[in-house]
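Re: your question from the hallway

Yes, I did run it. Sequences:
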Amino acid sequence: MTTLTPTPGGAAVRRPAPPATTGRSGTPRQGGTILAVPALVWYAVFMIGPVIAIFVIAALHWPGMLQPVSFAGLGNVRTVLDDPVFWDAVRNTAVQLAVALPIMIVCAYMLGYYVAQKPPGHRVIRYLLFIPGLISTPAKAMVFYAALSPDGLANGALQSVGLGSLTDAWLASPSTALACLIALDVWSGIGFTAVLFAARLDSVPDDLGEAAQLDGAGHWRTMWRIHFPVIRDYAGVVTMLQFLWTLFGSAQHVLLLTQGGPGSSSTTLSFLVYQKAFIAADLGYSQTVGVILFLAGLVGLLTIRRAFRQNY
Amino acid sequence: MKLGKRWLPAHLLVWTYAGLLIVPLYYFLASAFKSNEEIFAHPFALPSSFGFGNFRTAYDSADLGTAVVNSALVTVLALALTLLLALPAAFALARSTSRLASAMEKIFSLGFLIPTFAALFPTFLLAAATGLFHTRLFMVFFLPATAMPLSVVILVQFMRTIPREMEEAARMDGASTYTVLRHIYIPMCLPGIATVLLLNFLTFWNEYLYSLIIIGPDPEQRTVQVALPTLKAITGTDYGVLTAGTVLTLVPVWIVYTVLQKRMQQALINGAVKA
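Structure:
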């Protein structure tokens, strides 16, 4: 039996007790496992194969689609590590994760807790929180483009309240481009994550909170000291998800909004993979960064898992 | 639990955030009916007229009609293929207790840890090698593979809730494996199938980066998500047209969400948490 992640009690299907492996094994089950083969093959061809290929291409010297390919060994790694742009991307990605993740998870948890207490209007809130989860990446990017371009919503709002001096070309200024991308992540991430938290908190028995309140705990205390430990491992899962989405998904936002610029001020690691492959056509370089990204993802997942482990 | 006065700051913060979600969307919807001048002069005012001029311009200049058809085609075919592959697989894995089956299940579960994006370039090579580069067909083949781990795991969980006696009784009556799947398992896990369909509908319809690279810019083939950003370049900074185009691409998702709101939330929650 493998359950990768805990199921949210009220939300998901309840798993029955695992079927006894010994008790019924006498009954032969015709047409068994072979039915799973097509799905597995499909999955292997389109997903596992390409992932393995990343590692192979990373070891090749391949300066363009139609260029001759030669074996580079660890040569690409050296090139990548010597490239200041790569280090800019590392820094930007680190900043992005360090800023976006904590804000997103903490705010989303509090928001989810709020919604789960069923205050007046919580249905409306729930409906609204979900909106970012529905909007496609290009549409989200268009929203931000319209809001942040020089004659867009943000500058218009600033001007109309008499703060015209604060206006900026947000997406085109080296000091704010990365911040805009982070804002986009946080803006769309909080709502969706909050809905996930709320769904999980709905299945925490009410008397738990009530008991704590009778003992004189305030809401703040109940929220962090009573409820949070109960759903701690779930918070870990949600954090892992957001971590992966931010780490790998940022390429799309960067591509749509800033193209990594100005200079390399908003180039993230995942955008670098894209940019080296499809714009600069330096394929070995691109996939080497891909491997690094992959390993970063793995290390991150393990770290988050450890950090959120239940400590009874 | 009683919510006292001390919750006032919480109420304020939450509704502020809700405002941050809704204001840009309102701005979008309102701007879709305005000209640039109107947008700059009165960004938050209601549009003075509800003409569909911007929508028509967006529709024509970015070939959004063809793009919507393409997106619908890719989404529907990929959804069908996903079910065709995932249903028998989940059926087999849910019933089998063999070690091989549990190994297979593990492989599918591990798929959650593979971020699709990482393999963009090799997938592009695969498309080129199969001669399906710059076609919608490759996306129809490719998308189900990305959906396989989640779909199989969700369906297996649903199918495990079906009592074994049901199958045994049917077997007594001489039902074949196919009949068991078709007449017992599929009808009984319709909620699971709905979850998988909704979840994948959303990801398939909203898929951007792979569509951009694999299908490419050809207006005959590209999907809405690829066509949409081109509006920015085509129209320069005509926000009216830009926002109108974006609103158009949101409509299908919006319809589905409004009709199936509860179900959709449930599906996404199930999906995201198992992912």
